[in-house]
Amino acid sequence: MRIARPRAAKMFAAVLAIGLIATGCASERDDEESGDDGQPFVFGAPGDPASLDPSLASDGETFRVTRQAFETLLDHEPGGTELVGGLAHTWSSNEAGTEWTFELEEGVTFHDGSELTAEVICQNFDRWYNWSGTYQNTTISYYWQTVFGGFAQNESEETPDPNYVGCSAPEELTAVIEVAEPSANYPGGFSLQAFAIHSPDAIEAYEQDEASGEGENITFPGYSQEAGTVAGSGPFEVTDWNKGNGEVTLTAFDDYWGDTEAGVDELVFRTIPEESARRQALQAGDIQGYDLVAPADVTTLEDEGFQVPVRGVFNLLYLGITQESNPALETLEVRQALAHALDRQNIVDAQLPEGGVVATQFMPDTVAGYSEDVTTYDYDPDLARELLAEAGEEDLTLDFCYPTEVTRPYMPAPADIYELLRADLEEVGVTVNPVPLKWNPDYTETTRDGGCNIYLLGWTGDFNDGFNFLGTWFAGYQKEWGFENEELFDLLSQAETEPDEATRVGLYEQVNEAVMDFLPGVPISSSPPSIAFSADVNPPTVSPLTQENFAEVSFK
Amino acid sequence: MLRLIVRRLLQLIPTLLGLTVLLFLWIHRLPGGPASALLGERATEADRRQMEEALGLDQPMWVQYGRWMERLVQLDLGNSVRTGQPVWEEFTLRFPATVELAVTGILIAVVVGIPLGYFAARRRGGWLDVTAVSASLVGVCIPVFFLAFLLRAVFAVNLGWLPSVGRQSTGIDATEVTGFFVLDGILTGEFDASWDALEHLILPGVALASIPLAVVVRITRASVLDVLGEDYVRTAESKGLKQRVVRGRHVMRNALLPVITTVGLLTGSLLSGAVLTESVFSFNGIGSFIRTAIDIRDYPVLMGFILFIAVIYVVINLLVDLAYSLIDPRVRVN
């Protein structure tokens, strides 16, 4: 006892010393962070980018970064979904919708000093069209294959036929892109980050550093994994990718041609996968903004003085029904009963952030082609019970799949939404077997393979064309829906290849009405994913497409 | 000694070979696959078939295994399906973060845990003993993500003493030499960068140490209690030896043997990826990388990682055995 006392005292002193050092360094941290002019704007992103070359990517986290450095021929209006000029100030197509002419902006300079011309546009498109080997893997060229089909020389039978025919430059600032068949993907597809325009010198450098490999051993090109080679024309240029610390740094580009010059010298995207960690990093002042705020945190953050601007809606959450998986679901009355059983307003009120709305059809009302005349299915449990009785399905039992450990922009808390829907269905006498599955790949694969009776899924649009929503689900037979409806498929196919926009929109309205009569699933809601910023910054205009332009950000 | 080391390393070869066959079959039998995972909710059936063909996943299992082994014998672990970068590069990029964190965690566990366990045993039934045993129970029970949340809320958000996430502050001027940020700052004379990296280690280090600390306290306490009851301790005391000698030479030296084994195993488990701690603190180490790899069934990363960890465990076990022989003369004799 006597001997130990001095030791205990020493230990206590050591702990005290560590505490004092920590306190001392804390005051140092505070001094460092007191707003100086060159302070970087740090944004907390939920995931790492996959590549610094947007042509090779198909994920939102890559595009969030590259959008600040690369520009596309067309863009979307700030805060909206309408197409506006990007690198092209005007655009038009021939009557058949197979020749797209772009008049380019003058004086556009890339980060490496080269100039934008129509030849550069063609160089970019021809690069993608002539991709071979590893580049024909959908990991790398997903969007090219989705929008322009295959390549000059397809190397797999599974690769679609090319729809891209060629590009010409009749004048220095006039580029013409020709496609074989008209498609609803044009002109919206020209606004996708995957088709952002690269500097001609950078493209030459890329060719020295090709992707390689075979089988699962694909190597992404080195230039796409470190700053220094990629060069776009945006208000920021990529200057560092510190993978060890999960940070991409972009620096303001002094020779930017556009009106919106960068409001901060340095923009940093820092990867913080956990939502609560992003929130606490914002509260601690380690970052100045983050995306995918949990709905439950919105009020807390606002009360603490943080800014949580509301985005417009451009997504859809639906209850999918796999008709083939259970004969009862092939009966229209049963599907109608399910729709009437669900209190969708309650889900919007209880589970979705401000700005969420009940969906009446398979697209939000911000998309051209939304119809005011669709059949609607109000919450009516009595009617649901009657319909089930009429169909002879009073003892209906359904496997209800829902994803775990995931937050989607259209579905912030899947398990909570599932619980509300389950309670609604059980209220009308349906027995629900819960099937929780890990999001990726278990859930996505099971639902896509038709392995669930009913399930929760959704979609966030890429651009404002109805086919980007309706075509995703109803362009043909899909196991996840498990039905054949040639009339519906033909109508949508007609809409997809209709070159006249007004006629196409009219066809989408008809498709929406036909879909809601047939009721292959129940659209539940559209809701804006929340984004938060600290009080001392002027945030960017928030976008329903989650395409924020961080050049608009500045410190107050 | 050298023969022991060589023999242990040679034993590794058949173990790893068997492990690769079992793991390859098991991992490739998991539901879902990288094709679906990479394509996500947007993919069609045709997209998935095309991706599987491109990734070589449409080939028979033995062909896939053969390809993988062919690369392995050339010391090529393949490339990550997700990042497209060599698995070995991904590991070397992230391993320093994991080592820094594991060392911090284990240091806290040892420096605090062994004295605490010792004093708890010496004052059995006293307030220190009761507090240490209760606290270690809490340490084992409290979920890491919750502890992380609490630590960040108190020390980062409310007090503002420590950074909330990451390995280094944004914008700090630091030169990377080895990837060990603390060490790099010392090597390059950028001591502010070292200090900054240390600050970033404190909260995740404490969170990571919670379970090992509890284990070390309990094992040390139990082991010291056992040794205190031994005849040779009583004999030493009755001979009138000084307490310092009795404690150091007779009690601690014998009581530390099980503690060393435990610390060795704990170090192995921390190095194999403090998955949750790294994820919740956005600490870009192997743990958070593996978590993503499991999610998307990144086969080459998973296979490479498991082999890597097997080697680490064998090496750590070897080091533990060597440490035993230093402390316990009987091991040397055997």
Automatic annotation (TrEMBL), chain A:
A GO molecular-function annotation: peptide transmembrane transporter activity
Entry keyword set: Signal, Transport
Entries under Pfam families matching the protein: SBP_bac_5
Signal sequence annotation: 1-26
All residue ranges annotated as the Solute-binding protein family domain in the record: 82-479
Entry-linked InterPro entries: Peptide/Ni-bd, SBP_5, SBP_5_dom
GO CC aspect terms: ATP-binding cassette (ABC) transporter complex; periplasmic space
GO biological process: peptide transport
PANTHER family: OLIGOPEPTIDE-BINDING PROTEIN APPA, PERIPLASMIC BINDING COMPONENT OF ABC TRANSPORTER
Family: Belongs to the bacterial solute-binding protein 5 family.
Protein name: ABC transporter substrate-binding protein
Automatic annotation (TrEMBL), chain B:
Entry keyword set: Cell membrane, Membrane, Transmembrane, Transmembrane helix, Transport
Cellular compartments per GO CC: plasma membrane
Domain ABC transmembrane type-1: 95-324
Location in or out of the cell: Cell membrane
GO terms under biological process: transmembrane transport
Family named by the database record: Belongs to the binding-protein-dependent transport system permease family.
Protein name from the UniProt record: ABC transporter permease
